[in-house]
Amino acid sequence: MSMDRGVRFFTWYRVLLLLVVFGFGAISWAFAYAPAPLFRLVYPLDFQSEILESASTHGVDPYLVAAVIETESGWDPAARSDRGASGLMQLMPETAHDMVNKGLVDGARFDADDLTDVRTNIEIGCAYLSYLISYFNGSTEHAIAAYNAGMGNVDVWTRDGDELYDAITFPETQAYLARVTSALDRYRELYPDAFSS
Prior knowledge:
Layout: H1 2-33, H2 36-42, H3 48-58, H4 62-73, H5 93-101, H6 118-135, H7 140-149, H8 151-158, H9 164-167, H10 171-190
């Protein structure tokens, strides 16, 4: 009798393993071949006019802005991190004030202390992305990494001319760079006409 129970346990164990493998296969298939409406649930797009206005003002790809928002806050304007970053683009108060102090954002129009305001957050976030892209001589990849880990870290990682992804020493930043880059591709595919004027 106890032998019969052992056989049944191992049978169910195999079935469970097969179900897990099938589940992962189904998820992989869906990720590769799912129709656009399904992906739009995973990659929503909101605040298009605000993104287009600020991205145009600062010369930033609006799809990059959408990818950063998706990765940073999942489109939650009230998002707040443990470190004190706020809003859609998860901006630190010091960064917001720095963008105003550098004259990259009109402090009379956009209050750097109100980072949960959608327009303000997107405006300052676009200014910051533009600043990073300019600092890194047009490299979007470096700017994305710096958005997460800071400019100084990216400078250190790339001073020997190594490929950025391989040189990054923070696993979180490697994952962040991959997530934003993937989201950027998805937004371009899913919403090809979202920012056409």
